[in-house]
Structure formats: structure tokens, C-alpha cells
Specification:
Helix 6 crosses helix 7. Helix 2 links the parallel strand 2 and strand 3. With 259 residues, the protein is an alpha/beta fold. The radius of gyration is 18 Å and the shape is globular. It is built from 8 helices and 7 strands.
Length: 259
């Protein structure tokens, strides 16, 4: 288990992609800090699924819109586990609207959670990583860090910004033993996506299966990626084999951004 004795903090990890990443980290031997704002029951279930591999697991409800809560989460992880060796910035939200109608509060929240929170976690985590001369920072971006779609101004702006932040941090840390990379999924099959299909089908007057096909049509392989595939790629970036991989943005989108 390559991450035995290491500690990983995964933001937005009580469901979906983040949860699969937290599970993969625990399977690889890491202690894990799970983070999210779900219900008490959902959080408990997420923690239990990560904890079953026998490593230490903690839960932190830090709100990614609150800079002080982010700093406290990292400081508490450092104190309780002795280090934060792997940081995965996964927390994110979405809103779709024409730009002239885009709610200002939605813009602020999307930029805050999808981009600014990563700045705050990285800023708080890097000093400890530098002292130990080892660290892995992985930012979960999106195909929208590389290409745009209409009606997603805030999300596309945030993910493009996160890709740029990844490159800058990688260059700053290049001689320290720390790496910083991005993983950019396309459409991934998650409970959130599945839950949106009935409304999409109703709005378009189509079946749920037709709605599912329309969502994934942007991907040339015509299928959703799985959370396990995204987690496996993320886990690779924590390994010693990936020690010279930094500043990269890995697409996992069925060929979407190859167009």
C-alpha cells in the first residue's frame, strides 16, 4: 500500500467522485479526512465506507466558501494525523443560465467553491508539505477546464482558472518534491447526474434513456466515465511513479476534448 502512513484530505468527498477518491486513498493505505455538507446520515455512511479499509478516518464539515473553516480543517488534520501529504480539491457546484440572467450570488458561489477554495487549501497545506519535502496536490477540474459550453459561464471560468492555478503551483513547487496536477473528467455517472435525468426528460419530452444518451453525446465513446475510473487516475498521481508528473491536466472524457 503505497500511501501507508500518509494522510489525504479530499474536499467534497461524501458522495460522487470525491467519495470514490476518498475510498481509493484508504484502499491504498492512507488516513483520510472526508469533507462535505451532506446530511448526518449521508456523512456517516460515507465515513463508514472509507473506514472499512482499516485506516484512520476523520470527518470535517468545513464550508468551502469560508476561508477560516478551510484553514482550520487543514490545521486540524495536521495536528490530528501529523501531516497532510495528499490534497485533493474536488468540491464543486454548478448552475446553468444565460449570462444576462446569471444570478450574481450563483456566480460568486461557483467561483468561491470551485476555484477560490482550492487556493485556500493549497495555501494552507504547502508549508507542511515543504517541511516534509513530499506532497501531492490534485485538482479535480473538468473537460470545461479545456473547452467551453454555453450557459455555464461561472463553471467554465472557475475550471479554466483552476487549470491555470494548477500550472502555477506546479512551477512554484517544482524543486521541492511536491507535485500539482489536474484531472479533468467529462460526464461521469454519479447519483447527482442520475437524479437530474427525469427533469431533463420531462423538459425535452423524451424518455429517461434518451435523456441519458443526450447528456453523454458530447463524448465520442458514448458512455459515462465511472467514479472509479476518475479515482484510479487520481490515485496514480499520488504514487512514486508519478514523481516527475507535475503541471499536467489529465482528460478523462471519452475523447470529448480531442475534437
Amino acid at each position: 500500500m503505497e500511501l501507508k502512513g500518509r494522510t489525504a484530505v479530499v474536499t467534497g468527498s461524501t458522495s460522487g467522485i470525491g467519495h470514490a477518491i476518498a475510498v481509493a486513498m484508504a484502499q491504498a493505505g492512507a488516513n483520510v479526512v472526508v469533507n462535505g455538507l451532506g446530511t448526518e446520515a449521508d456523512n456517516a455512511a460515507a465515513i463508514a465506507a472509507v473506514a472499512k479499509f482499516g485506516t484512520r478516518v476523520a470527518f470535517d464539515p468545513a464550508n468551502m466558501l469560508r476561508n477560516n473553516q478551510i484553514a482550520d480543517m487543514i490545521a486540524k488534520a495536521e495536528k490530528d494525523f501529523g501531516s497532510v501529504d495528499v490534497l485533493v480539491n474536488n468540491a464543486g457546484i454548478q448552475h446553468v443560465s444565460p449570462i444576462e440572467d446569471f444570478p450574481v450570488e450563483k456566480w460568486d458561489a461557483i467561483i468561491g467553491i470551485n476555484l477560490s477554495s482550492a487556493f485556500h487549501t493549497i495555501r494552507a497545506t504547502v508549508p507542511g508539505m515543504k517541511k516534509r519535502k513530499w506532497g501531492r496536490i490534485i485538482n479535480i477540474c473538468s473537460a470545461h477546464s479545456l473547452v467551453a459550453s454555453p450557459f455555464k459561464s461561472a463553471y467554465v471560468a472557475a475550471k479554466h482558472g483552476l487549470a491555470g492555478l494548477t500550472k502555477t503551483v506546479a512551477l512554484e513547487l517544482a524543486e521541492t518534491g511536491l507535485t500539482c496536477n489536474a484531472v479533468s473528467p467529462g460526464f461521469v455517472w454519479t447519483p447527482l447526474v442520475e437524479g437530474q435525468l427525469p427533469d431533463l426528460a420531462k423538459a425535452k419530452g423524451i424518455t429517461i434513456e434518451e435523456a441519458k444518451a443526450s447528456v453523454v453525446s458530447a463524448q465520442p465513446n458514448k458512455r459515462f466515465s465511472t467514479v472509479e475510473e476518475v479515482a484510479a487516475l487520481t490515485l496514480f498521481l499520488t504514487t512514486e511513479a508519478a514523481g516527475s508528473v507535475t503541471g499536467s491536466n489529465y482528460s478523462i472524457d471519452g475523447g470529448w476534448t480531442a475534437h
